[in-house]
Design brief:
The protein is of the alpha/beta class. It has 15 helices and 8 strands. Strand 6, helix 9 (about 240-255) and strand 7 (about 265-270) form a beta-alpha-beta unit. One of its GO terms (molecular function) is ATP binding.
Amino acid sequence: MADEPLPTRWSFQEFKLHYDTKFGRKREDEANDMSANGQTVYNGNHLSGTSNGSAHVKNTSDLAVYEQYRNQGRGNSAQSNGISSAGVDEKQQRSLLPPFESAEVRSLAESLCRDIIRGNPDVKWESIKGLENAKRLLKEAVVMPIKYPKYFTGLLTPWKGILLFGPPGTGKTMLAKAVATECKTTFFNISASSIVSKWRGDSEKLVKVLFELARHHAPSTIFLDEIDAIISQRGEGRSEHEASRRLKTELLIQMDGLTKTDELVFVLAATNLPWELDAAMLRRLEKRILVPLPEPEARLAMFEELLPLKSEDKLSYDLLVNKTEGFSGSDIRLLCKEAAMQPLRRVMAFLEEKQELVPDDELPKIGPITHEDVEVALRNTRPSAHLLAHRYEKFNADYGSQILQ
């Protein structure tokens, strides 16, 4: 029973009863007996005290979750031979969670900690072809303020929010992965499932706790993918639930309200439907960058990396670039995959004629990609994101941020 997770929602009476039962009044008599025998007592849990002054918790599983986090990073308060380590001037490790007023809020923070990207997505700036304006703004907002904080003060405070909008498959999420890889910040990958709860009032609390965690782990980046699903336009004429409106209001307050601090908390949002966003959110996202369909130079770089051809097949690259106008980056990847599948299909047709299974060491090699394979791939692949290109251009003309060279 000691390893059983604690309930996430308690009334004050339930919490007090549990705390007194586990750590308090029912162990006072036991604690007094232990103190008389020279053993150290901590909150009702006895420690195995020794003659050299060292001590450790006998059973850490008896400690509640919030007690374990409170003790995290403290270490032992005594060393061998009775020498105290309190006077040693060492930088303590930052705790995972900031101090919260209740166990309920702490449980919400623990659930949000699962959305912190701890690994490395392994996406470099150089691996993203084109999109130079977007990469430059992201470096201005995240990379440079951390490297040279002296310059970004006063009016030059870094951007607090950037919106990446454009057709699907153009690299908005790839840019977010590059930020998580290149920038030494705490990266929160947030979606609607992270901050929407079925319990009344918990969605607003999750938003508040999210920004408290981000300030605690500053410098940090909050990535809101498909933000149009979280904060669409508000209005009485729209079919909007009260809980959804409260969630939107709390998000707006946390981004720019009285709770705003000087901690470097950067909000990066991405959407395919920018015209659905609320006007107040557009104001808080100071830079609104169009991530357009790839230009001919970017398409050529993608083909050279994804579809290696022979040196005499330079004409195939030019043909691909000319015939892929309106293709997104995702469409180009599908096109290259379709072209690479043609030699494999010829090998699979040869293997199907065999009556017996061919051993791995006797399998035939896959041939090179030919010009005919590229033609077949072009006939079998269609663009998926070119129909709404004019709406993105209009929104960019009305609300977009341009960089003049």
